[in-house]
């Protein structure tokens, strides 16, 4: 029970990586506030199974003007968060020359601006209490780029920059800020990819398999727990060695 007595806020918690993180935190004894645009269909069953330790916040992080007020309200209700996982993200892929400015901005709003606003809001309280761990979800695409994803790559590169800057600003107050950079992870999006395309992708991965949400959740758990007490400002790639 590595997170016994801890309170955590996890964004993008309804499915995929966010759901895996939420479930892992609950299993380790944390009380979790999950935030998502849509409620999971089995939400009430999950809340009951958690013994009331799972709480749900419905919010659209694309509406950046509303994000701070929503998070501040939940922060007060919770009495503070020990852990923040900024996991929410969207994609709107297209070649740069065909990408609309609207689609470019929407991805930055959710993936980068909302991440900054939430980290700043929760981080202020962590600084006051002189303790806390913030984990931001970046991507290997934010390090290496990817054709057709200029908006997504820019947003995730920005997340890495924000992470390193916040880590420098908060370390003296006992707050750690790190990032996870997932590679090719199983999701609704990868389910739609052809087997041929998946095969080509796996050929580029030294571990020869697609990553699972639980692979990412375990890395997040490490950064959230006291096991990483001397780690801040880092970007950990969970990519099966794709970019060694």
UniProtKB/TrEMBL annotation:
Pathway assigned to this chain's UniProt record: Lipid metabolism; fatty acid biosynthesis
Residues the record marks as active site: 152 (proton acceptor)
Start and end residues of each Ketoreductase domain: 6-188
Top EC category: oxidoreductase
Free-text function comment from the UniProt entry: Catalyzes the NADPH-dependent reduction of beta-ketoacyl-ACP substrates to beta-hydroxyacyl-ACP products, the first reductive step in the elongation cycle of fatty acid biosynthesis.
Oligomer and partners: Homotetramer.
Name used for this protein in its record: 3-oxoacyl-[acyl-carrier-protein] reductase
Species annotation: Treponema primitia (strain ATCC BAA-887 / DSM 12427 / ZAS-2)
The encoding gene: fabG
